[in-house]
Amino acid sequence: MLKPSAVVELVWRDETGSTASTLLSCPSSATVEEIDASATALASILLPLTGAVLVKQRIKYISQTIPRTEPVDSTPIRRSGVFFFSTDDDLPDGMVTVPSLKEGVISATEPDAGVGIDVSNADVVALVDALLTNGATNPFGDAFASLITAYVQSRV
Amino acid sequence: MALVNLPTAQVKIDYRDASGSKGSTILHFPFDTLAAIAVAAADLVSAALNALSDAAIDGYTLSYSKREDTPATPTAGSRVEEKGNFVWRTSNGRTTRFTIPAIVDSVLNDSGSIDKTNALITALEAAVTDVDLVFAGADGSDITALLEAYQSFRSSTKRQLPADR
Hints:
The complex is a heterodimer. By secondary structure, chain A is α+β, with helices and mostly antiparallel strands. Chain A has helices at about 30-45, 120-135, and strands spanning about 5-15, 20-25, 55-65, 80-85, 95-100, 145-155.
């Protein structure tokens, strides 16, 4: 459930290179454009009040699972599934990680038994579909085109 | 000198396993994606991820970030540990606050309180209480007036200590 308030974070840097933030709340019903305009207006008023300089601005919408749920099994968080996605030609690929991957989606057939993820599994298909149809991209903004491969990775 | 947006908005989905260890999935959407659309997408993807993970999903944060491409030079002697604290009255009778790091000395009284009649402070109060700006208390109530303003000092965190110490 989306929290009623979004957070604006203005990050300031002083002479020594240390940073600190001014945190402000605003209704999460406001658009990024509206919040950005207000943050820009306020930052111009704050600038003469500080000896530090503005280096970053973040607008954060926060959603919490309510009621809180509990893990369904003891699978450790580091046992992850990694899903690699292609983008258009010559652009960097993208990756999505799933912590505590369920045992049931790991391939049981060779050649990738115990390592590969069964990409025909209904839950895997649903995730891939949700990412592709909702505009997920790599960090550079290049849209995912298709799933390349997926396998298990233990991250420590 | 301008704040420049990153190419994407980021969704960080938070997990907790049976041992209490935490992890996350990072997703990206084009920066111009409306928050309402990104939230709907995050809800859908989160549900799909939940079906693939044994961990509990505690929630997610959708962030739109901008960085200054050519930051100005901070004032000599400025320290972010020196805060200007601003406590505001809200329309429901409660209070909300924020701090301004490295507050300038010119707005301080000798006692360490902030001079509420200073032109910079009256301009700040006018802006924060202005209905045209979206800022509100954490519970969503309107900010109506400046209640208290004072200087304070916070301990340096490890990251804020001088690198050449």
